[in-house]
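ugh ok fine here u go
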Amino acid sequence: MSNQRKKIAIFGSSLTNRYKRSLCRVFSIAAEELNLDLVIFNTYGKLGTRNGFTEDYETEILDYFDLDQFDGIVFDGDGYSVDGMSESIIRKLRSVKCPVVSISSHVDGFYNVDFDDNGGLRMMVEHFIDHHHFTRIGYLSGPLDHPDARSRLEEFRSVMKEHGMNPDGAGIFEGDFWYNKGMEAAHYFLSLPDRPEAIVCANDYMAISLIDSLRKLGVKVPDDMAISGFDGTIEGKEHLPHLTTVTRERMEIAQKVLGLLVDMSENPGKEYEKIKVSPKPILSQSCGCEPLDFQHVYDIVARIYEEKRMMSTDVYEAETAMVKLNRVDSVRRMEAVFAEDSVNFGDYSSFFMMVHVDSEGRPAYDSSFTGPSGSFIPVIWVDKNKEYSRSPHKFNRSAFIPKPDTDRCHVHYIMSVHCAEKLFGYSVVEMSGKDIFTEFHNVWIHNLGLTLNALEKEDKINKLISKLEGLSVTDGLTGMLNRRGFDDRSRNAIVGISYTKTVCTMVIDMDGLKRINDEFGHYEGDRAIKALAGMIQKCCDHGEIAGRAGGDEFYIFAPDYSKTSLDRFVERMKVCVDEYNQKNKRDYKLDFSYGAYITETDSSGRIEEFLKISDARMYEQKMTKPGRRR
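structure:
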């Protein structure tokens, strides 16, 4: 790897939400600065909010990737909202050979980034005390079953106590780290005998919800009450008033972590000091440190309206794509729909969708698919800038991303393609810029999985229909046409005669079947019937239509025949019978009687009449054989 660009993997979940998007951006920028390739593994996480549910197969796809090809791995455990998913990823990463750095939570056995979250909370509390001289300070905590919430609450109490104040301040309310309890918290703080002058919130989302709820109750921020958040989110910067908060320096995290992984890959066994990241305060409008900037407000409102307009357009594009995907009848058509309509999740340069193939090369959407072989084939290949070679045609554990022909850094995002019933494969997308795709990319992946599932079911139904149709015209013992199948095929052949032709019908009957059944059993009788049927099928190489009429009787219709063709057929049948009898170890000889009728006819000919003549001639021949026994 010393002469190649190093490759780093990042594992995260729900990376399209606004809080996570900047994480992908800063790592992309830092990777370019260090001349690295990134492969970012993203999962949906929990779907929905009111009636949320989770999906299987989100992490199963990792079983088919060789993670030891990476020089280092970054684990972001913050976004895994599905129970057990974070633990599942951690178990997989414990087995890799390269170093792993956890950037959001402590994981035993990984190299962990040390965030001074308590120091950030201390900054906020002491800012209200030392700068604003507040003495009545409330605290809006996160859920106390969350370790970050407990740690931040303990720090709040510690700071208050150090400054000679009540450790619980003007009151403590347990929130949810989200927007849902803002009004309940507002009522609580306003109901206290001594209203807080300021409230420190354990994250930005709760702070925003609290400010909006206070506004509805006639309380102005910061005029009547100062509010601070924690985390430095984009929402906090855009909210009015802008949020006073502390931020984790994500660019600093990205640069330090990627630099560490590069150094660790080049110097295995070297001891490293723990990476420490200190938060920085953002002193803004919600505490009164900055006045409201109306030009900035105008810019934000204009951008929000633009985003709203674009959102409506993107929804329409998503609806169009869903309808088109619902109409496709082949995987090739899926690629055409994607290439034409994938315009609503951001500017991307390439998109590939790979599906499992089994040991016989059948893709996962084929209803005959037996199970993953470890190989994948591309079924959607969109390469806008012509940067990728289509060779090899199959991908595997060690090469699951198409190899670019260009000598520049690449950032690829990997997601599982599945539905509720099955894992089909995975997608690979590369964005044109540093930003991650929007949530509409996830909508596409969901719909591609559902479309593959629909194609698989349609294929299964078609094969079942074909099988049922085959059973209705096929003899179960010999595999030949049955009487119905023979009648249909032969009548269609006669109807298709456009001018007078010489045709031939034959009736073949096995000799001595009753003796075989009586002396050797019906199993041996069936064996003899199948043997004779196989000979007939072998000799039908001149356009003949053959079928089993029932029992030991067979019909043949040849729509374009001659006396020479008939003699050849009969002679070949006799040769086949002689060869069979020489090899047969049973104490009986296989033989047959036949009757044939050659005549000229057009499309009005009645095959039933021809077969009657053939049957009579067959019977005459059978009756002339010495020692005749049926």
